[in-house]
Amino acid sequence: MTTPDPLPIPRLTAPISGAVELPGSKSITNRALVCAALADGVSRLQNVLVSDDTEAMIHGITALGAEVTDEGDGHHSIRGIAGRPAPGPITVDARQSGTTSRFLAPVAALGIGEYTIDGADQLRARPFGDLVDALRSMGIDATATEGDRLPMHVVGARAVARRVSLRADVSSQFASGLLLAAPCLPWGLEIELVGDIVSQPYLDMTVAVMRAFGANVEADVGRYVVDGGGYHPREYRIEPDASTASYFFGLAAASGGRIDVRGLSTASLQGDVGFLGVLEEMGATIEETATSVRVSGPDSGLRGIDVNLADLSDTAPTLAAIAACAEGTTAVSGVGFIRNKESDRIAGPVRELVRLGIDATEEPDGFRIVGGDVDGGVVATYDDHRMAMAFTVLGLVKGGISIEHPDCVAKTFPDFFSTILGLATSSSTASESDPTPATSAARRVIAIDGPSGSGKSTVAKALADRLGLDYLDTGAMYRAVAFAALRYDVDPSDTDAVASMARTIDIDVSPKGVFVEGADCTVEIRGPEVTRAVSAIAANPEVRAELQARQREWATRKGGGVIEGRDIGSVVFPNARAKFFLTARSEVRAGRRAKEVTDLDYETVAADLVRRDTADSTREHNPLVMADDAVVIETSSLGIDAVVDHVVSQLPED
Predict the structure, then answer these.
(1) Confidence band (pLDDT; 50, 70, 90) for 592?
(2) Candidate list 314, 407, 608, 616, residue with the active-site label
């Protein structure tokens, strides 16, 4: 996606509402890639994050001899090097990735020859002296430019020391790098951390991933003993990124809305799920289901708090942004070390908030922010993805903000803007006049509406196949909810119970079929029981709101597609690229439906069709209404190919 520079952020006109599936954790992805690369066989990783940082790690482990295959859909296979990097000389370009540089320097020391770790100017400005000192104390020949800057040179050799001490108050990444390499030393390694430990949850994460790949690690506060047994290949699924989730959770809390992040749990390996507790202290409500975490903001607004973020340091910019939206003062402490991240994450947020008219001050190890009105302006990001994402949240809530150099989000989440602004659009909150990515997914949607039996499902699928686009059958989504209600003994007419179930149930509608909680119900949803129940389900306003949010989310994730239903062009995507309304004579529609539902005779199907038409056109919420600008196609005497031909002829040029 190409974004303007600077990128204007549209203000919400109503609280945000929706659900989102986020890509895999960057932190877990890069740790799992290292463990898989050092293993003695082929590992397969699922839900791998694709971003600048993870691509840097993939290129790095490939340079050291691992074989990485992108199998598509977030799946990667890695043939490991059994703890023995390819002989040097080898240069690893870590780009802007701190984890790549700091993890692979100790890994390179396992090889033979000279290895150079280098990166972009931003990474070259970050300190590496503690890692250099630690490697030297182990008997490794390691040097860095000006003593503590990249490029860094490591001469591979077996470490002679079995124990190493390391300062723990600058970056946990140094300790994580030593931990990750340790199982591949013949006798392992004992690591003692000296001083106050920053970002302890990241060290816990490192140990958890190592153990998942067969490493034996004893962990105590400030002390780790790693056995030298190497790693073993594994099938490993990566959790959604909790740091990225903080922006969506923060947006829900600050706007007084709600957002569900699917696939994330409060029991996550990632310490940044602790940000949920921060939001709860500020007044937000946290709910967890078997498949998602939901944050709902208070109607009365957030309140300022005093909080130590030492273990949640990546969320400090997020909290800075939403603190500007809260009532009172928010004081953050314990994060002095984040001055040495991609940017100075204390000075940067404070400087930009002051420029926007917010009362904000730096402290030695944090900041103080008093919530208030925002004057608006262009926010400098300092080429830091977290600055760009955090201040997007502030822009959505307060308005008047543009993000400078928005492409920096590619470091960890290239689709950030299309995802979060797509949610804004799906909540009918963004200005339709804004030429931002918020409307881009909708403008790539082809909407096919019409009553039951009009041929819209068959036509939509055939159209998608012809144009090479993704296709979504929204009717199958409502039928899936009806199937779930029957399966779990929920009365379809109990609007509250069905709505509650719809918000938490896992539904997957794809070319492979329809699945509810992982169970294939492709055939069952077309049966007579579901057919009788689906009208009540479709008339439930809360179910419709939930499924419409999922439909918009699907379009944002896919970048558009062909979507069919009864309110796609009129309600769900009023800005769709093209809208078509299919219709047919009632007897023709009844005949088509009778062929699909083989368990019912024509008379029963015809009577049900009349009942369904009446319910669709008279229901209080989102009745079946043709969009004013839709192209009407009468399909009674037309074959599928003829209808598709007509649709294609009416499509506007891209």
Answers:
(1) low
(2) 314
